[in-house]
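User: Sequence in, structure out. Go.
Assistant: Echoing your sequence, followed by the structure tokens.
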Amino acid sequence: KLENQVTSLEALKGELQKDNDNLRKVATELTEEVASLKSELLEVQAALAEKEEILKQYSEEEDKRKKEDEENTRKVERLARVEQIVLAKIAAGGLVIPELVSDLQDEYGEDIREDIRTSLANLRRKFNIQKNSFMTEPKYVIVPPKALTDGTFDITIPEDCKSYDILLVSDMHISKVNDKLIRDYDSILDYCANNNIRLILNAGDYFDFRKFSKKSYLEKITGSKKIVDSVISKIPQSEGIYQAVLGGNHDRDTLKYGFDAIKMLADEREDFITLGYDHVTITFNGVHSMLTSFVMHHLDSKFPEPAVDNSYNNEALISYLDDYYTKVGQERNNSYLDIIGHFHRSGLDGLNGICTVPSLYFDRYNNGAWHLKVYFDSQTQIKYMIFKPLDFKEKLIPTTEFAYQKLVLK
């Protein structure tokens, strides 16, 4: 029995020895794995620390950027407030910089002078602001800019051109830009595109600033400027279609406020062209004669009929035109036709060569426009004209046609 027990113990000892060897092997492997995991952990910790540093830098940069943005926003807002103060001061009678610096220094600090000069420079790009004296410290005031009158606008056509299409509109009296005006403009441009019209001639009173008539001078300045800016940014345009605008009596209002609304429109929009104010000669191929040009006018006068308050007296109109041509040293017969805005009514007096253009929106009879088709002879002189009255009811609708040919006595 004792021998058997010894043998069993020796066998158990051998198995335990094997188990111990296996455990040592496992322990070695676990030790190596732990070492590997520690190494990986160190790498992960290093990578995490690096990312944390990057995030910290990004956060610091983001905070710095936000502070800079906030500071820039404060500067822009401050400059906008100062610009309003400067404009209000100019509108109230004039700006003398040291006086305004003294008024604002306690609230805005020592650097307010630079803000005032920056604001003045910005405003002088928008309005005609000039020095009204040669004092050591000049006073800056708004001065009406000079407006071109009696200008010339030339239309170049090929020698073999048989006809040229023009849309004549007038007295739109735009006082706000809303969805309806935008839709209407799209309709007008569609009509032009569909009828080979590349030029719209506007006979005046494109704008209307009467709603500011009872406002303060500052409100008149800022309000009218907003209307012009709105037209510039929102009115549709169509590639290849140009709008040449003659300034009328209502457009002239902004000259008193220190800027030219029509010129500003033409400066900012490639598709708009300024024709100046009151009168402009339209020539073909640069030749001013009775067979190669006509004159467009926007009058600031009324010639009432005794029995019709809102009409005009044709004889008085002819007399006015004769006086105008005498004043500029010309004869009325030297142009093919006189086209006139301001009266808000359509009319074609073939005997006296006068066309009155309807108001697009506020006509006394039918809102609308004229489609003018000018025909030329082989020498590119005007042979005759076809006038197509267009009613405006959400879109331009042709009605009939009138032919006009200048009577030339030989």
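User: And one key feature?
Assistant: The mean pLDDT is 90.
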